[in-house]
From TrEMBL:
This is Putative N6-adenine-specific DNA methylase. The keyword Transferase applies. It comes from the Bacteria. GO terms for molecular function: RNA binding; rRNA (guanine-N2-)-methyltransferase activity; rRNA (guanine-N7-)-methyltransferase activity. Residues 378-421 are annotated as: Disordered. It comes from Balneicella halophila.
Length: 421
């Protein structure tokens, strides 16, 4: 049995509490939330579990070397004198991932160059040869984190970001990050027992994450490669045991899951991903617009990621989001709706008052996940006038907003695919 050591699980802004719960559930010790990260302790088995099972983690780091430095030369010296041979051999290739915020370097890439030189010079001094860099498929990946005069070097046990689940064989238009999709489902309290509908499903990320969560399929079930598999102390038997025990907890699904989209090509990508992942029996896919979607259920969850302003012009945003609000109000009474968008100002066109607002990042965009409780008799409200809470808005005809040249829709993007024809 390996000894316990410190690790850091990276995540997206706003998902820290979800990741804390996941880490505690798999037995992590000394769990401490930070900004976009959680520190914790555990052994090799826990590290394997974290990579294979966590849905809201991006990568799992194992800190190796932490120090303060006074200048660039001191930075190099402290790296050069570290015992790198404990963690890699001459025949290993390596890569460096960086997060650098320091006035001591003219640019962030210079810090990476000095780190690379320190490793190579160490091996030349001790073994008369230098290892090779391979940025695409390294045997060992280091994470360099520099904050002014403080440096932390870690081994990246994940290699590729954990949002790369391994089930995406075909992509639709601007797919949502898998970690973010899983977080939306967790915020919504998805338990696999309610009806779940994504009426603008794109390439089906929310649908697949919903199935995996409901059936208790590990997040890494479809993924083959992790960084720790190339480490000198990799325990293959322990790794197989971790996967076997997690896979034994997979269960049948109870709920009805429906995904819809009006774009045939995008829907084809959904079906490819579902079939190749052998999940196609767990979800029904429909070729229809949200506006024409025929809801026959009395209750459940609507969880969706509508188009953002970066993909379409400002003039169409109001039309699409107003349609979403009207459709939810009229056809989904008894449901809870969870919608993410960026920027958050898009929500003002929905016209429904949210019961929850959660700030999240989708890529580089800061947006919001909002929760709408659609009780019978739900009415449309203006989100920008909280003092008028309870006051029904008088719907007035909107003039079509003038779209500036730089905001005009991409010619390849057809906004009509979201609206009734």
């Amino acid at each position: 049995m390996s000894s316990s050591f410190k690790m850091v699980a990276k995540t997206l802004l706003g998902l820290e509490d979800l990741l804390v719960k996941e880490l505690e559930d798999i037995g992590a010790q000394k769990v401490k939330p930070m900004r976009r990260a959680i520190s914790f302790e555990g052994d090799d088995e826990l590290m394997y579990k974290a990579n294979y099972q966590l849905r809201t983690a991006i990568r799992i780091l194992k800190p190796l070397h932490e120090f303060k430095f006074t200048n660039v030369e001191d930075f190099y010296d402290k790296l050069y004198n570290f015992e790198w041979a404990k963690y890699m051999d001459l025949n290993d290739t390596f890569a460096i991932d960086k997060v650098v915020y320091s006035s001591k370097f003219d640019n962030t890439q210079f810090a990476v160059y000095k780190f690379k030189d320190a490793i190579c010079d160490y091996f030349v001094r001790n073994y008369r040869r230098r290892p090779s860099v391979n940025t695409q498929a390294p045997n060992v990946k280091f994470n360099l984190h520099v904050s002014e005069d403080r440096c932390i070097v870690s081994l990246d046990s994940s290699l590729d970001s954990l949002h790369k689940r391994g089930y995406r064989f075909s992509e639709g238009l601007a797919p949502i990050n898998e970690v973010l999709a899983a977080a939306m489902l967790k915020f919504a309290g998805w338990d696999g027992k309610q009806t779940l509908i994504d009426p603008m499903c794109g390439s089906g990320t929310i649908l697949i994450e919903a199935i995996m969560l409901a059936r208790n399929i590990p997040a890494g079930y479809y993924r083959d490669t992790y960084g720790f598999q190339s480490w000198k102390n990799f325990d293959k038997e322990l790794w197989e045991k971790v996967k076997r025990e997690a896979d034994q907890r997979i269960k049948p699904i109870e709920a009805t899951i429906i995904g819809a989209d009006i774009n045939r090509e995008v829907l084809r990508a959904v079906r490819v991903n579902l079939r190749r992942s052998k999940l196609h029996m767990n979800v029904k896919t429909l070729h229809t617009s949200f506006e024409d979607f025929n809801n026959t259920f009395d209750s459940g969850l609507v969880i969706t990621n509508p188009p953002y302003g970066e993909r379409i012009g400002a003039g169409e945003i109001a039309e699409i989001y107003n349609m979403i609000g009207s459709k939810l109000k009229n056809d989904f009474q008894g449901f809870d709706a969870w919608i993410i968008t960026a920027p958050k100002e898009n929500f003002k066109h929905i016209g429904l008052r949210p019961s929850e607002k959660i700030t999240l990042l989708n890529g580089q965009l800061e947006g919001q996940l909002q929760h709408f409780e659609l009780y019978e008799g739900s009415k449309k409200y203006n989100q920008d006038t909280p003092k008028e809470k309870g006051k029904l808005i008088e719907e007035k005809p909107r003039k079509r907003q003038e779209v500036r040249k730089e905001e005009q829709p991409n010619k390849k993007f057809n906004v009509s695919r979201f609206l009734k024809k």
